[in-house]
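Question:
Now give any protein.
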Amino acid sequence: MTEFIPGLKLSELFYHETVRMILNKHFPDLPHSAALIGYGSDVMGYDTPVSRDHMWGPRLVLFLDTKDFEKTKQTVDNVLKNELPVRFHGYSTHFGKPNPQDNGTRLSVDIESGPVEHLIEIETIPGYWQKTGMIDPLCEPTVTEWLTIPQQQLLEWTAGKVFHDDLGLKAIRQRFAYYPRDVWLYLLASQWAQVTEIEAFVGRTWQLGDPLGSLLVATQIVEKLIHLCFLMERKYAPYAKWLGTAFNELQCYPELQPVLEGILSASDYPQRESWLVKAYMLVAELHNTLRITPPMELRTRTYSAWHVFNAEKRELEQNDPRNTRPHQVIFAGRFVDAIRAGIHNPDVLALRPNLGSVSQFLRESCPAVQSTDFCRSLEDDLRV
């Protein structure tokens, strides 16, 4: 078995030791950029030996100038097919045809001699962004463009590594490095709003004699808090497969991880509620460190007590008959209102309140959020 080399490192070696040598020999004056970006666990650095079973190996994206692109692409592609070695650091550089029954997946195939059907994607920078996101990377994205690009796609554009850059690829990646401030605030408010919608239901379902329902709602809250943490630390969240792995890399992980696991492993609602309160307090503290709103009160109240507190400015005793829903909640809506007060961009203020991005209001990993056409078609629907 060939020794495992992380895919990002393997691809970087592949470019410098092989691909660039071929380009220098046959096209010494060819401006180009080279990188490993886009799909794949290797781009994010999460690949393991198991990842080698498909769409993995010596590969990269080779960017060429837009001038005479089609002609140059064909010439370069032919040279690479005939000049590339059949193996690199023990791994085949040859891949089988795309499988139409498996989303175009290609598998590594051992051959004795070329030509090599390589896994080097040859594109222009505008062409690549248009193909993967239906957007012009040479222009600043609009507010609705930001919101109709899934976070996974933004991550694929900005993760990985650039190996060589004559064409300004690094500058394009920097343009998409993270959301503009007011778009970010809108997303934060929208994420808190999702917590608002269900935070009282963990206790209410238990109160109704539905322990499974209570656990299901708690699980949703845990996921929403994790996504909120990504937003607060200004990191793109990957799709479900890598969400926990990437969460492990956030600064808040050491404190939050045992608390979130406590929520999910609690055997009854009283235990679960104590863990939920701890989670709410930690996340609220993280919010205050952002200094994007006046300091928010770091406490929970029972769901019924909040209404009395707002009306009468006093606490409601736990045994008060009006305390019919004695479930401790953070009342996330107050964070929503405070964050929205800091938004000034008229294009952001013209959006539907608290709807968020396609990564927030579409179900993760569903065909809708995976469809570039569908996501980008929603721009007009985001506005009031």
